[in-house]
């Protein structure tokens, strides 16, 4: 397969638009407030589109279709769980956090729990999750560059790192908010156009369903009511419900989305931003479900590589890509979405999808890198360890952090530890079960204590990461309950139950430890709630 | 806990989770439920793909921000 000029042109146009947005907004990001929180002047539609583009990553654009490809119809509910978690954030965290109007994610922990050391403690799971997300964003950008330029995977990773680095280096939150809003539109157009192509190709939804069943008879099987499940992980309700909850609360408590609530003009804009994020993101997800459902049949019926000797099915096509382009680890399965688009043999379609894919990957990488920049520079070096550098020269400090983060993540991206959606799931669970309870209950429960926050963050970080890795090591998948009997494994995707355990643990610890000062509770809990 | 949370939040949560788990339950108790024809297409495209994934969430996020804006406007009027 050679480089197609139309696909290349699509990428060039995309980069030209991003460059122009960055160029015109560059003057707006020269002081610290503008650089970190866009001067708090972003309207609801722009912020909503930027929220959607930042929240959804290559884990969505590549990973969700790949998981539908692997697990079948029951995994559709995971996508419902992700979008379904977004409206909840409107009243749970978006409005209260905009009322509080901090600069950084860890500000809330330091203020509500009245200790600067909370910045360091809350920073641990945030750093783990954040680095994982930058890695998967580089991998996603690399896979789309590979699809466009037909480069080797290692060269694609290096190029992807340079592209993402330059994008973040020349703009703070202002440049990235406007360009990210454009990226939100681009990714949605890419997904919807692709879905329309797929549905049209099979003559409607009935045709697509029949074609899917022709290559995968168990695709639509649900647990308990079919002879054979769509996949072993989907053989019980815990698998279906578990995948629903893995990413469900992310929009309310993940740092890279929470910080976008800080950038809105006011509380009203923060709430309306969520509505627009649901409209834009939900539409994109509708497209991704169709792409994932049709991926196997499209590849097996139409992909040009199916004519190659020795290739008999979709998995063989992906294995061929692994060999031909040196795609590392399990990542090659993430290429199934792009392979399905290649199968439709339309350079125009591939150009739009590749531009959408680059958009979503770069938006997430920049969103997370900004969170990590502020965490490492302003919060840890400045506020915890007392250096004046981040305050006096915020842009220089942030750019230095960007260099370090990008280099670390580039080396990890050469050989990704898992599929992009698996990396995403692990990052979500470690953050949601550790820093999620002190954030949400910190706002909505006056009894939450400093000791409980510290212990919960540390214990849950160890429990979630430890059980996730143990399950992979002992049971060969992150999705089995880590203490399962190997002969009778229980499906608990990404050890999702730790999120619920974390909330219970935080409540119990708070009830048995010393309450915080009343004035602190009033200022950072009671006063942040809606005026009655 | 959750003192001061607007009532509409709990109504929205009931709609979101009610819709999702009701259809999930039907799927796990009625064989072939996702593929039963409804409005001329497999039912899963109506209640899951369009309903649960998009329309219900748009509805709930709309009523969340709208009801809060109405409530705040009412409070403002009472003050003035």
Write the layout of secondary structure elements.
The complex is a heterodimer of chains A (532) and B (80).
Chain A: H1 5-25, H2 32-37, H3 44-55, H4 58-71, H5 76-100, H6 107-112, H7 117-149, H8 153-169, H9 173-201, H10 205-215, H11 237-246, H12 250-253, H13 255-262, H14 267-302, H15 314-325, H16 336-343, H17 347-384, H18 389-392, H19 394-414, H20 420-434, H21 436-444, H22 450-475, H23 498-512, H24 518-524
Helix pairs in contact in A: 1-9, 1-17, 3-9, 3-13, 3-14, 3-17, 4-14, 4-20, 5-11, 5-14, 7-8, 7-17, 7-19, 7-20, 7-22, 8-17, 8-19, 9-14, 9-17, 10-14, 13-17, 14-16, 17-19, 20-22, 20-23, 21-23, 22-23
Chain B: H1 7-29, E1 37-38, E2 41-42, H2 43-79
Antiparallel strand pairs in B: 1-2
Helix pairs in contact in B: 1-2
Description:
The complex is a heterodimer of chains A (532) and B (80). Chain A has 24 helices and no strands. Chain A is an all-alpha fold and 532 residues long. The termini of chain A are far apart. The model of chain A has no long low-confidence stretch (mean pLDDT 87). By secondary structure, chain B is mainly alpha-helical. Chain B has a domain of 39 residues. Helices cover 75% and strands 5% of the residues of chain B. A two-stranded antiparallel ribbon of chain B has the order 1-2. In chain B, helix 1 packs antiparallel against helix 2. The longest helix of chain B has 37 residues. Chain B is elongated and about 60 Å long. The two termini of chain B are 31 Å apart. The chains are: A mainly alpha (532), B mainly alpha (80). At the A-B interface, helix 5, helix 10, helix 11 and helix 14 of A face helix 1, strand 2 and helix 2 of B.
């Amino acid at each position: 397969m050679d480089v197609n000029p139309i696909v290349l042109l699509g990428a060039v146009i995309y980069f030209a638009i991003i460059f122009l947005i960055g160029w015109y907004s560059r003057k707006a990001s020269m002081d610290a407030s503008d650089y970190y929180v866009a001067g708090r002047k972003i309207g609801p539609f722009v912020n909503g589109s930027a929220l959607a583009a930042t929240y959804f990553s290559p884990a969505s654009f590549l990973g969700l279709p790949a998981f539908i490809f692997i697990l079948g119809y029951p995994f559709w509910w995971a996508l419902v769980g992700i979008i379904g978690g977004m409206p909840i954030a409107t009243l749970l965290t978006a409005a209260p956090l905009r009322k509080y109007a901090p600069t950084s994610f860890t500000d809330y922990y330091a203020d509500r729990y009245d200790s600067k050391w909370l910045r360091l403690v809350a920073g641990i799971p945030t750093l783990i999750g954040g680095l994982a997300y930058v890695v998967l964003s580089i991998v996603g950008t690399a896979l789309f560059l590979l699809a466009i330029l037909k480069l080797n995977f290692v060269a694609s990773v290096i190029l992807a790192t340079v592209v993402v680095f330059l994008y973040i280096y020349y703009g703070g939150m202002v440049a990235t908010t406007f360009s990210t809003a454009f990226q939100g539109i681009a990714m949605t157009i890419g997904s919807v156009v692709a879905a329309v192509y797929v549905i049209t190709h099979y003559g409607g939804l009935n045709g697509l369903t029949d074609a899917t069943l022709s290559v995968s008879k168990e695709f639509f099987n649900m647990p308990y009511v079919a002879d054979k499940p769509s996949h072993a992980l989907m053989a019980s309700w815990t698998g279906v419900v578990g995948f629903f909850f893995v990413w469900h609360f992310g929009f309310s408590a993940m740092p890279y989305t929470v910080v976008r609530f800080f950038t809105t003009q006011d509380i009203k804009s923060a709430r309306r931003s969520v509505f627009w994020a649901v409209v834009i993101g939900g539409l994109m997800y509708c497209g991704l479900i169709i792409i994932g459902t049709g991926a196997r049949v499209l590849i097996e019926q139409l992909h040009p590589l199916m004519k190659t000797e020795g290739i008999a099915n979709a998995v063989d096509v992906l294995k061929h890509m692994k060999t031909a382009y040196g795609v590392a680890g399990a990542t090659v399965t993430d290429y199934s979405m792009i392979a399905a688009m290649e199968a439709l043999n339309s350079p125009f379609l591939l150009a739009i999808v590749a531009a959408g894919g680059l958009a979503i990957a770069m938006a997430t990488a920049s969103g997370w890198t900004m969170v990590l920049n502020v965490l490492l520079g302003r919060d840890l070096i400045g506020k915890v360890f007392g250096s004046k550098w981040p305050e006096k020269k915020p842009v220089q400090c942030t750019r230095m952090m960007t260099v370090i983060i990008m280099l670390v993540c580039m080396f990890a991206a050469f050989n990704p530890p898992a599929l992009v959606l698996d990396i995403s799931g692990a990052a979500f669970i470690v953050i949601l079960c550790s820093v999620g309870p002190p954030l949400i209950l910190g706002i909505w429960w006056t009894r939450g204590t400093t000791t409980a926050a510290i212990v919960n963050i540390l214990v849950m970080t160890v429990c979630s990461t430890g059980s996730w890795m143990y399950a992979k090591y002992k049971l060969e998948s992150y999705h089995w309950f880590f203490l399962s009997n190997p002969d009778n494994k229980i499906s608990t995707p990404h050890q999702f139950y730790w999120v619920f355990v974390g909330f219970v643990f935080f409540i119990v610890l708070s009830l048995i430890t010393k309450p915080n000062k009343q004035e602190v509770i009033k200022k950072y809990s009671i006063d942040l709630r809606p005026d009655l | 806990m959750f003192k001061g949370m607007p009532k509409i939040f709990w109504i929205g949560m009931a709609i979101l989770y009610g819709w999702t788990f009701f259809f999930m339950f039907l799927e796990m108790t009625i064989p072939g439920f996702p593929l039963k024809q409804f409005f001329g297409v497999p039912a899963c495209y109506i209640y899951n793909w369009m309903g649960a994934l998009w329309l219900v969430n748009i509805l709930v996020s709309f009523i969340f921000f709208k009801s809060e804006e109405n409530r705040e406007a009412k409070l403002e009027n009472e003050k003035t």
